[in-house]
Every structure is written in C-alpha cells, then in structure tokens.
Amino acid sequence: MHCLLGALPHHAMRRLAQRYGPVMLLRLGHVRAVVVSSPEAPREVMKTHDAIFANRGRNITFAPYQSRHWKEVRRLCATELLGPKRVLSFRPIREEEAASLVRGIAASPALVNVSERIKVLMTDLLMRCAIGDRCPMRDEYIADMDKALELMAGFNLNDLFPGSWLARTLGAGSLRAARELHDRIHRITQAIIDYHESKGAAATTGDGEGSSRREDILDLLLRFQKDGGLGITLTTQVLSGVMFDVFAAGSETTGTTTIWAMSELVRSPRVMERAQSEVRQLLHGKTRVPEADIQGRLPYLQMVIKETLRLHPPAPLILPRLCGESTKVLGFDVPEGTTVFVNVWALGRDKMLWADADEFKPERFEDDATDFSGTDFRFLPGGAGRRMCPGLTFGVANIEITVASLLYHFDWKLPGGASPYELDMSESYGITARRKTDLLLEATPYVPHGLKS
C-alpha cells in the first residue's frame, strides 16, 4: 500500500509494473490484487478467460456476471437503451444542447470556464435523453451523483480490510454516509419516475417518430417494467441502478474526455489548426453544426478523439474485475477471489507499443484501423469483452458534436497571451481521471465567410 501513497494509482502502478512486470501482484490490506499492463495480459483477462474475470461486486455496474439480473439488464442497455437506433434518435437533443453551449459562450466570450460549460452540457444532454427534460430535481440529483462518484473512487477501509474490526470501527461513518446517499438517490429516482409518469410518458410510439414526444430511456424502462418479457422484475431499485449508471458513465466520462480533447488541442496549435480547418471547410457558411452533416465526414476530428482517449482514457484503471475461479494469466497463477485491475492508461502510453507515446499526435491513427471495439488490446478506452462499456457509441457521438461546435464557432487561446505549452495538464483521480484544474480559455467568435457583412 505504501507504494501507492502520494501518487495517482494508475501512475504508481505503471512505475511498479515497469519494475516488476506486466502481471503484478499487490497486497492492498487484506485484498489480493493483480495489475495487468501489457496487451497480452488483458487479452487473457478480457478475452481468453473473459467469463472467469467477468465478476464484480453489486448493483448494476458491479453486479456479478453469473446473475440473471445483470445479464438481462446488460442486454437491455446494449440493444435497447444505448443501441445504434436509440443513439440516432437522440440526435436532435445533441444538436440543441450543442447550440445552447455555443449561444452561452457567445453571450460572454471573453474568459470561458470550458470545464464547467462542458459539464453542464453533458449533464443536461444526459438528463434529457434519460428522462425527457431537466426536471425539478435536476440540481439535487446531480449533486448527489457527484458525491456518489467520489465515494466510488479509490479504496476505503472496507475494500482493504473486508469484514474486519478496523473497517467496522473506523469506516462506520463513511459506510453510513454511503447508505444515506444511496437511499437519497433512490428517493429522488422514485420522485423522478412519479414526475415522469404524471406527464403522460406512455404516449409514445417507441421509435421517436410520429409520436407526441421522443421516447426517452426512462420511457423504455417503464415500458419494459409494465410489459415484462425480460425474465426479471424491474423494481425501482433496479431502475435507480440503471439510471445511476447512465448518468455516471454518460456524463462523467464523456465530459472528462471532451475537456481533455480541448486541452490537448489548445496545447497543440498545429493540431488545432488542422482540426478547425476540417470542420470549417465542411460546414462553410452554416450557422450551426448539424450532426447529419458531420457524421463520418470529419476523419481528422475522429483521430483527435481517438488520440485523446489513448492519452486520457476516462477510466484509467478499468473498474476492477473479480477472478471467479483459479486460473493462469501469462503463466502466473491467479487464485479465485483475486481482484484484477487493467491499467488502460499505462497501455496507451507504453513506448514499446506507441511511437512518441507521450506526445499528442492524432496522425498516428491515419493509416491505423484501430477503433473502440475492444479488439486491439493496446487501446481499450471502453474496455473489452462481456464488461465492455455498452454506451461507447453514444458517448463518442456526444463528444464529436461538442468539439466540432466549439472549433467551428470560436477561436481559442490561453488567457493573457500565455504560451500553449504553459497549460497545466495535471490530473486528479476519481472514478475518472479529470483535469486537476478547470480549463479556462479566451474565446473569439468566428463568423463564417458566407455570413460576413
């Protein structure tokens, strides 16, 4: 444990792996933890022995893989809640929220807290996709979600010394706070459901077309709750867990990635110029950024997003997996019950795998077919296998239109004429690796050539 003190866990674990190898055993209190940090090791964990390492703890994100409950909800998320058709149906919301972001910045463009603006955008976007609008409980719910994410990050005494007197005595306060927070989120979720149903949520067709309003994620869940057919009962507790996952995975990870993308672009004027030129040439003269116009037509921006995810994966240590039975990884024995961490951040910065690994070079993906599918174990921003993030397509769509809108409508620079290389790129650690400080930039509105007087 002392080897991890005073450093971000994914940084400290990479340094230890460089010394002790790509499959490394750590003893964290009473917890036996294996850290893997080479492509061959996560391939065994998330492909060869995927079923053995598919377990976690509890709730939806941490539910045991073998449980029918988890399998059904996972299938529901992948095929219905966040499938390609559903992602497409949310296009108008993405466009409206991106346009709202642009209007807000244009109203006071001098010094912009880009971090805060993007966080609000992603939260409102997710809120609208999930429940149709921002709802009266929005601020209270988001505040509690932020607290829950903080509690989920890192280790607490019960993680390190499960069931021990030390954990029960010294960790009682944090456990009580976690239970109270869980109960409060559950009550707010129930209030949101009641509010949602009071507005006549049932009056939708299910495809977002030809109906009185677009079907949102809660509509879908309530429809499945009413009609059945899942093989499990969608209780309010289950709904609360699914909604928590949608917000935690959706707003936190996409917001963090978008902020890092803008940080790297400002720090790399050459890359900024090329990405901005691509967007402006494509949308020449338009007053907004229609998603239909940019989809599949901004290859360099896609490279920028990939390169951002390589250097700044939203979850640098993929949420820990639990070994379900004794097995081997690269010839090493891994006993049943061992916690396994995949250091995605270390994979993305491995100098043996990537040329100029610490530099921001989107061009590296120009002739590279590497994508987000989880088949290239050098590049795992959404994980791989049974536990792969089901919302990756949804998240990338949100990132692309946001960054494209910011690049099209504004020119960006650091305040006070500071050099781009002076931008602080320090990380803080939570459930995601956020910027340690807010990204503050000066924005100059860009007037498309066709609109100039």
Automatic annotation (TrEMBL):
Alphabetized, the UniProt keywords read: Heme, Iron, Membrane, Metal-binding, Oxidoreductase, Transmembrane, Transmembrane helix
Localized where? Membrane
Matching entries from Pfam families are given as: p450
Membrane topology is: Single-pass membrane protein
**Which residues of the sequence carry a binding annotation for heme?**
389
Recorded GO CC terms: membrane
User: Which branch of life, at top level?
Assistant: Eukaryota
The main location is membrane
Would the keyword Metal-binding be found if you checked this record's keyword annotation?
yes
Any one GO molecular function term: heme binding
What's the cofactor? heme
Return the similarity comment. Belongs to the cytochrome P450 family.
Its protein name is Uncharacterized protein
Q: Which organism is it from?
A: Panicum hallii var. hallii
